[in-house]
Amino acid sequence: MVQSISRTRLKPDLGCFSIFDGGFSGLVVINFSANAAIEVYRRYMINMGMPESELAFSHTSDDVSNVMGELMNQILGDFIGKISKELQTSITQSQPKMLTINKELTISVDTNLDNAVARRVSFKTENNHIFYLEFAMDQTEFIRSADFEMDEEFDPDSLIEAHRKTHPSDSNQSKDMLSDPNVKGIVVDDADDLLSELGL
After folding, report:
1. What's the rounded mean pLDDT across residues 129-148?
2. 0.85 cut: is pTM over it?
3. CA dist 44 to 37, 71, 193, Å?
């Protein structure tokens, strides 16, 4: 569900915002309650291999803010990648800013938003703590002027695996030579071969 709202706000307990600009402009806000922020932070860090005993317990910790900023970077990075590929336009983002607040703040972006629209989407964590993503951007209609091909997506792991299958003896021989302490000064061109196959 996407909710139409009149304006974007930073809400307690932890607000995070970032501005994007380029082909079109806008503002993204994510509001976390203290419980939602701590749950997301702790699950993220445990999945990254951090021991639970070393994790912060307060949403006001710098570690929590850093993780929330990294998550927003990942969300906007994915959005920018899709926009670049599907709409053939480019946008850039600002570094996310985090605020620990106890009052609601209205936030707007001072750009060329002539006829801005604002929307809110709600999410919940596994333990039913709710957080919100809000955004404001130009009211924009995207019109395709001509058919174009989308950029093809490449999976790096599958490309490397395919390269290994086509040159198994070369890569095995290179590994043997690299592990041999008596062999010095050898330049292994596997990486160059892979880049050549990718057209780089």
Report:
1. 84
2. no
3. 11, 9, 37
